[in-house]
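Friendly challenge for the regulars: who can give me the structure tokens for this chain first? No prize, just bragging rights.
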Amino acid sequence: MAKNEPTGNPDNNGPGTNYSKFIGVAFQMIAIIGLFTFAGYKIDEAANHATKWATAALSLTGVFISLFIIIRSLKN
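First reply, four minutes later:
Bragging rights claimed.
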């Protein structure tokens, strides 16, 4: 076997692996932010708030948590 031929190693870090990793991270961000926003919306709806403070606060909390998870996963 020549040195330049691929060995068929499944642990290969090809471009498909990187794309699927980043697509997974994007869906994870959407899920976290969406879940926190939905929870804030339901809290505001149940409490009949005129200003949607819980929605805003939990949305920002979701953004910060998702950014923390992304930064932590990119370090690995």
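Helices lie at 15-47, 53-75. Residues 15-47 form the longest helix (33 residues). Your move, everyone else.
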